[in-house]
Amino acid sequence: MSASDRSNLRAVNLPADWSPTSWRERTALQLPTYPDQAELESALAELRHLPPLVTSWEILSLKQQLAEAQEGKRFLLQGGDCAESFDSCTSDVISNRLKVLLQMSLVLVHGMRKPVVRVGRFAGQYAKPRSADSETIDGVTLPSYRGDMVNGPAFTEAARKPDPRRMIKAHARSSMTMNFVRALIDGGFADLHHPEYWNLSWVGHSPLADEYRRMVNAIGDAVRFMETLSGSEVHNLNRVDFYTSHEALLLPYEESLTRQVPRHWGHFNLSTHYPWIGMRTAAVDGAHAEYFRGIRNPIALKVGPSVTADQLLRTIDLLNPEDEPGRLTFIHRMGATAIADKLPPLLEAMRRDGRRVLWVCDPMHGNTESTSNGYKTRRFRNIRAEIEQSFELHAAAGTRLGGVHLELTGEDVTECLGGARELTESDLERAYRSTVDPRLNYEQALEVAMLIVRKQAQIAAPA
User: Fold this and answer.
1) 269 in helix, strand or coil?
2) Contacts of range 304-307, beta carbons closer than 8 Å, 24 or more positions apart
3) Contacts of 149 (CB under 8 A, 6+ apart)
4) Which 3 state secondary structure label does DSSP give 260?
5) Region of residue 274 (phi > 0: left; psi between -120 and 50: alpha; otherwise: beta)
6) Are 376 and 368 in contact (CB under 8 A)?
7) Residue 187: CB partners within 8 Å, gap ≥ 6?
8) Residue 3: its pLDDT value, please?
């Protein structure tokens, strides 16, 4: 990191009256009730002695890149599973997920002409908030499934019992995932000299195949042209930076991996580079906000249609009182039908107050619905509409849309309706695999990347 970069990430003050455990004095929502407290404390004690999953210098590097995204010099691509499962910690699932994110970033870099910050929703996205603590099926009531870090999805008493040892297993699975991702990237998996290696099997027969191939060929030609001029290989194209993120929902787990490190002041959450607070746990006086205000990671907050400008300003006062660059991201998820009414007042308040935040669009969570045959799904046309409106509303407000936050997979699933192949309700039965929320498949995800490029170009074009 250069001297100018370090000056941009200026020092801030350690929050008063904060510690990694001070959240315990506040109301904590969405936490499971463990039946055996001694077993819980034993698991947490073990976690406190396990190695961290990420490093402080990776976290600070990401914060610098997010500061540049706030200024329009980069674009954030954040994507991955709705909820990871222990069973999906396999080489094929991980490499395919990485491939689709690399493909999307290739499209964005080529079309937007700026670097992309690549952040995966993986290596820790094992806990999920739920709208109810329990569910009833055929007269039987059991605790809700809260992600593999807490309990199992099977509707049995044994599976649904919250088990603190699952946090140890989640740490191990996260470590395996990160180890494999790092090995792939360091081994040249993301080498821009050979973007054709990232292809998934669909490329040969997709309606988008020709457009994607043209981009791959154009980038390959550009790389060869640069190297011809310089007379040597451009080695920094051999690898990319890749970061992890997850919703920091299970606070006992996050606390156990919050550490102080040599030569840095303060505390870092070393379970992930980029944690976020979900909509259900975003209360300014709640336990999650209290925990987040003290960690040095870049942090994000999900912003729904019920949030007011005053609430957002109070949140900034708590989470980023000194306006540190790269510190705070607002991920708005309004829904295609509500965004035109709900987002502009928030943008105007932040612009008027001069607050420094990174605005990101989550077009997934506000567009969830249930079909007549009982599947939870999202319509691609609504996802597209929310992205397009986000660009337009930010441009009208004089603010900047700096990224997208997507639930997606590298697998050939049929969970979201529409897209290039026009998936219908009857298609959902073919390959619906998500245990919680529907995800874009690899083809729909790439279509989103192409949509972003086209919309950004339209917004940027002179009238």
Assistant:
1) strand
2) 304/279, 304/332, 304/333, 304/334, 304/366, 305/334, 305/335, 305/338, 305/339, 305/342, 305/366, 307/282, 307/346
3) 126, 127, 166, 167, 169, 170, 250, 253
4) coil
5) beta
6) yes
7) none
8) 41
The predicted-structure confidence for 88-141, as pLDDT tens digits, reads as follows: 999 999 998 998 898 888 889 888 989 999 999 999 999 999 989 999 999 999
- Bridge partners (DSSP) listed for residue 417: 379
273/123 Cα distance (integer angstroms): 10
E strand map for 268-373: 268-269, 274-277, 299-303, 328-332, 358-361, 368-370
**Amino acid identity at 55:** T
Compute the distance between CA of residue 153 and CA of residue 429 in angstroms, rounded to an integer: 19
d(CA 406, CA 100) in angstroms, rounded, equals 12
Residue 109's H or E segment, with its range, is helix 91-112
Within 10 angstroms of residue 165's Cβ, the number of other Cβ atoms is: 12
Look at residue 341 in the predicted model and tell me its pLDDT: 98
CA 154 to chain centroid, in Å, comes to 26
Give bridge partners of residue 299 from the DSSP assignment: 328
Cβ-contact 447, 208 below 8 angstroms: yes
Check: CB of residue 386 under 8 Å from CB of residue 361. yes
Helices assigned H by DSSP within 320-398: 339-353, 380-397
Q: Does residue 237 come out as left (phi exceeding 0), alpha (psi in the -120 to 50 range) or beta? A: alpha
How many residues are present in the chain? 463
At 196 the pLDDT is 62
The Cβ-side half-sphere exposure at 446, using a 13 Å CA radius, reads 30
Q: Which residues of the chain have pLDDT under 50?
A: 1-7, 235, 237
Tell me the DSSP string of 246-259.
Answer: EE---HHHHHHTEE
Cβ contact 2:127 at 8 Å: no
Structure tokens at 294: 């003290």
CB-CB neighbours of 94 under 10 Å: 22
Check residue 4 and give its pLDDT: 41
- Judged by DSSP in three states, 45 sits in helix
The pLDDT of residue 6 is 40
How far out from the chain centre does Cα 319 lie? 19
Q: What is the pLDDT of residue 171?
A: 98
